[in-house]
Amino acid sequence: MSPVARLNVLKVGGLLLVFAVALALPALAPDPATTNIAVFTMMYVGLATAWNIMGGYTGYISLGHAGFFGFGSYCLGLLLAHLGTAAGYAPFMLVPLAGLATAILAFAVGWFALRTRAATFVIVTIAFMFMLQLLAENLVGLTGGGGGLSFPVPPWSGDYFNTPYYYAMLVLALVGLGTSWLIRHSKFGLGLLAIRDDEDKALAVGVPTPAFKLTAFIVSAALVGMIGGVYGYYVTYIYPQFVVDPLIGISMVLMVFLGGLGTITGPVLGALILEPAQLWLAYNYGASRLYLVLYAAVFLVVILVLPRGIVPSASDFLARWRAKAAASAPAATRQ
Amino acid sequence: MTLVLEAAILGVLTGGVYALMASGLTLIFGVMRIINVGHGALVVLGAYLSFAVTRSIGIDPFLTLFITMPVMFLLGLVLQTVFIRPLKTDREALSVLVTYALALGIEGILGYIFTTNYVQLKGWYETTSFPVGSFRIAYVYVFGFVLCLAILGAMFFVLYRTTFGSSIRATMLNRTAAQLVGIDVDRVSAVAFGIGMATAAAGGVVFGITTAFNPGSHYDLISRLLTIIVLGGLGSMRGAIVAALIMLVSEDITSVVVSPVWASFVFFVILVVVLLVRPQGLYGVRVRDRL
Amino acid sequence: MSLLQIDGLSKRFGGVVAVDDCSLSVQPGSITGLIGPNGSGKTTVFNLVTGFIPSDKGAVSYKGHAIGGLGPDRIYALGIGRTFQLARIFPRLTALENMLVPVRRKGLRALFSGASWGHERTRALEMLEFLDISHVAGTLGGALSYGQRKLLELGAVLMAEPDLVLLDEPAGGVNPALLERIADRIRRLNERGITFLLVEHNMSFVMNLCTEVVVLHRGRPIATGSPEVVRADPAVLDAYLGA
Q: Where in the sequence is the domain holding B210, given as residue range(s)?
């Protein structure tokens, strides 16, 4: 088999293996501590993938996605409270509605924010997030303000408790990955990448940049909103500063940068590496403020050492290695 | 009505502080084209440094500036050289992450040393005020305002009356062209960052006297500072000052007229309104890439 | 009827008058050259026509319809393509991907269907072949040589089958052999029905290729006509030597 074909088989095989493990995880490691880590890790796989659709493909860095996360959370919580839905599996069915609501919010925010370029856009998204946090804290009648909002508590217990949440996060992560893949292999995706490289040139060749950017923003936000909804249901009680949390927003960004901005597997890799690490740090050092310092140190190391991220650096390395191998190896002869 | 006027005056006085902090932030953006989202943390750091100095040698907080400003300036040179200069590709995006990491690191270290309890800088003038017409103005705000005027004045002097200042301005206008005429843009960047940090130190003192703070206070600060520099136009010092005044006066008036709770919301409302009409901010320049 | 009609176009930047009451027309099927000393406003005219900057005064119409005020993407959709003074391509996309970016038809199907994409890929490869750069189809734009980039830029612009192409200094920074190739391709595309308006400093290139020449000086046309006529016009010589 030719080396290229062999590599492809490895890739597909590897993907299938990872997928199989992900699917069977709760059965393989049923203790709550592990499944808890799994829920959060899968959550960030989805978040990073969703963020990448905007930040990675168009190059417009949003640091306010935590706002959409929190919004989705509150949407689902309020929806459940108003509909009086019983806890159990039903709330999961309502998650897409939270996504829809977030999409509408993203349309409004995006329409406004995307009138600006690069640096201003980043700041406007940050401002949006703080604005949302303020609203969550002050619209006490609606959100419960600083007192928080409660979600119905499902009747499952013990070891099984985390499992439905894990699968919900897995489904959302797969939806995100599927969307990301579809976009990447479409003309729409090429247009987004063109915007990232040279927005004015993209305009000059007919790419409707405002519409494309807004669409990517909405898709990205809706996914994040849905994940936020499931998160709220998982933790059963949300507070403004913990759900519209800049740390969540920045973590998903860092994971994408670590894994490789604009790639499909990059965000997944970044999440798989950073989230367990983050949880471990929080568990062991969370009491003292050193947790933040260590996290910041990880941050800085990642950015300064691997600015392009793992996946692009690795594929660069592979390409160079292959070129060297091809150059030095004489024509293969049968022994 | 007098309440509104009093609020307006307070807004101008506190606006001065924010103007000082914001001009440091916008200077950093103008010279290096990076968004220093850690600026709020630097202000808090400055406040804690002053706090530590007053705790150990008992001098007035304003006097600590003679120590903290040089220290922060030097620290700025170091931070810029170690963490920001190495960024070559994707500068704007990566610098946001790096400066955020620095902010987190500072928050963590401060929390470790000082705990997360709220503290405040103390001075004799803290609660005393003097009468002007039918209302009273607290001394502390006036002192703070005068300090900010002085430092801003010094900044403008350096920028517009010294050769190094023109190097800074040249780098802000066109980095490549500045390099071509022999300006050491790396040194200019480091110094600009140092200046930014020194102004953060000064802002930190006034902030620390007028507000109780803890390591986590930087989030609220940075959200306001960022909003201010966007409103003023990224990179424009004049814009930062005008925007700070507008924002703070509006906030203080809203606080009295509507409620304190919604006062901070006014910040964002103004931002939205202005950006709708002028996406580049009040004094910003509409940027179209090379044509 | 002229394909592109410019009437009284004016634009100033602060105190500098870049384009001053400029009127000219481009005939369908022509290869029109727009020449003039540096600073005479040529690229600014391009930017005004293609919607990158708004004009202060004047009107531009294409095939009889006014196009002033439209954005660059709408103008491209109408059939006017342009290249830039310093060849602009998308460095992180491959040459082939560069060719597939231009948007001709909007709508969900055009953007997501695989079928129309297959068709586009074939056309793109044919165009790369026509421009002699099909061997770099898989190379990243950023890794191409300057001459390859220029050809790629032209190829990508042509993907939407424009009727009018504005070329900004197609001969700039190009070696003589490549220059001849570029001129040949332009001629062949012109035979297929594409009208060209090009800004150029290379006089021999212009004189050999263009059917019609307009000379701009200080933002307004001072001479129009066939290359021979313009070359002999004393006002033109004066502008170039005196400027």
A: 2-277
